[in-house]
Amino acid sequence: MILFGLILTAVGFLLLLAGKTPWLGRLPGDFYFRGKQVSFYFPLTTSLLVSLILTLILWLISRR
User: Fold this and answer.
1) Integer Cα distance of 44 and 18 in angstroms
2) Is residue 32 within 8 Å of 40, Cβ to Cβ?
3) Are the beta carbons of 31 and 21 closer than 8 angstroms?
4) What is the pLDDT of residues 35-52, one digit of tens each?
5) DSSP 25
6) Is the Cβ–Cβ distance between 42 and 31 less than 8 Å?
7) Separation between Cα atoms, residue 20 and residue 22, nearest integer Å
């Protein structure tokens, strides 16, 4: 339970820092469409990168 709390705190801290990194969310492969009255944003590459990092972290934790 304590480990889960520490991980959750670390993820929250990383999310706070993510807003200050200008390249996160603007990677090649992140789709942005802007029309006259509609805008659509789909962060495909960013989602894949976050998924890969979380998978590696959870894999390392589960090995113990």
Assistant:
1) 16
2) yes
3) no
4) 999 999 888 998 898 899
5) T
6) yes
7) 6
Q: Give pLDDT, residue 6.
A: 87
28 vs 30: CA distance, rounded Å: 6
Query: In angstroms, rounded to a whole number, what is the distance separating the alpha carbons of residues 9 and 38?
Result: 35
Helices (H), the chain: 2-18, 44-62
**pLDDT, tens digit, for every residue of 13-41?**
877 776 677 767 778 888 989 999 999 98
Domain ranges, residue 38: 2-62
What is this structure's pTM?
0.61
Token pair for 23: 């390249």
How many domains does the chain divide into?
Answer: 1
Q: What is the C-alpha separation between 15 and 62, in angstroms, rounded?
A: 23
- 13 residue type, one letter: F
